[in-house]
Amino acid sequence: MNEQTLQVLWSAAQAVDATGGKTVGDWCANGVSIDSRTLAPGDLFVALKGANHDGHDHVRAALNSLAAAAMVTHAPDAASVAGGANVANVANVANACGPLLIVPDSFDGLYALAKAARDRSNARIIAVTGSVGKTSSKELLARALAPMAPEGRVSVSAGNLNNYIGAPLSLARLPAEAEFGVFELGMNQPGEIAPLSRLVRPHVVLITNVEAVHTEFFGSVDEVAAAKAEIFAGLEPGAVAVLNRDNVYFDYLKAEAENAGVGRIICFGRDAKADARLLDWTPDADGGLVEADICGTRCSYRLALSGEHWALNSVAVLATAFAATVASGARLEDAAKALGEQKALPGRGARHRLEHDGGLFDLIDESYNASPVAVRAAIAGLQGFQPGPGGRRIAVLGDMLELGDDAAEQHAALAPVLENAGIDLVFTVGTLMSYLFAVLPNHCRAGLADSCADILPALRSEVRPGDVMLIKGSLGINMKPLVDAFIAAGDTNAMRQEG
């Protein structure tokens, strides 16, 4: 994704300066990893100790996988035969186990690397948060910024690395030569975003929206809004805030941004007063056409993504790119054109055309996560997707988790949304979704079960050529096996759209 791959991200000497640790051997790393199973050769492996796992148990595996070195608080146990596992015996340890960076605490060491990466960077830093859409917006933003970076040096946090470990890990991977850095900041509870914002120190912040997500850990959605506003805690002087004017918390977030000393506020949305405005969205079989006005520049561009929520996300992204670059009209047009290259991410709207029963049907993979606002957007996308001849629109919905005391009511409230969207059949998975199933009209009640394994036979029996099927649920209910089962059973050579 246009992230610059450098020969040296951290030399041993630079890492020592950043962390105050001791090196064992001489080494250079071109990446940073906390997982020995997925690290790339040349990565610095950071051995973090958690409640259930200790990365120190995997140091040897990391080094055997050609990690450049391992950041540890103590050397692997086998090194003790060489004279002890402490800093005083570094020469013996080097011979016994390989290159190391020994620090008092590897978690603090990761933060120190992240801080040093930020301190040495001249990149324009963008932080993205929101109740829904932040990961997708971050990926779109990387696309939009690429044409604006002459050397293509856009560094973007991988996946959804957005928490107290993921954000510093992403920042520690920021190359010194990067022109833009895009970081996603997330939270489950109050007080989590502020320290991340102070670490990242953004020049531009994008808040996609504030909705009833993770409310199990908050007294109200007002508290969710306050937690999202923590992103203003680390603003650089003259920073720009990009806010959703259509969201009910726009005025609150605007005031919080102004109190934090933001230099400028750019608002996006459908509202006529929005600085970056979605003028029109015309869906088609391959995505849709967007008409937008971005801070005075008219843009027309295609998206290979289905649903009006994607169109609105793209407007927010172009407004953010404008804020990060003060882009001219021509550069905005290049950025808008680049958005058409973005495919839906697995679990976040990826579409598959699959063989079944002598024909083809379409599967929309929204299995990664779910909340009331995200499910409503997915249902709207399903409504806009045209089935094949004789086909039907089928929704397979798993529990929406972390909703608090009114979870049952929020699930049941989806019934009129499904009915108004003309969804033909609804399958539900999980205890909470049974509240929805109970109030659905009889004609669209297709089946309910406690787990994916239990619902799969009924789905396989029901689906037929021409159908379009949406699969969506919270990560904890684990809807992905349903997607995997259908992909494994159907040859996807006809069409497979993945990010």
What fraction of the residues are assigned to beta strands by DSSP? Answer: 15-25%
CATH topological fold name of the largest domain: UDP-N-acetylmuramoyl-L-alanine:D-glutamate ligase
Strand order of the largest sheet: 9-10-8-11-12-13-14-15-16
Poorly predicted runs? 1-6, 78-91, 492-499
General form? globular
Q: What is the name of the CATH class of the largest domain? A: Alpha Beta
- How many helices? The count is 17
> What is the radius of gyration?
24 Å
**Alpha-beta content class:** alpha/beta
Major sheet attributes: 9 strands, mixed
Work out the helicity level: 25-40%
Name the CATH architecture of the largest domain: 3-Layer(aba) Sandwich
Q: What is the domain total for the residues? A: 3
Compute the number of strand runs: 23
Query: Mean of the pLDDT scores?
Result: 90
Kindly report how far apart the N and C termini lie: 11 Å
What's the name of the CATH homologous superfamily of the largest domain? Mur-like, catalytic domain
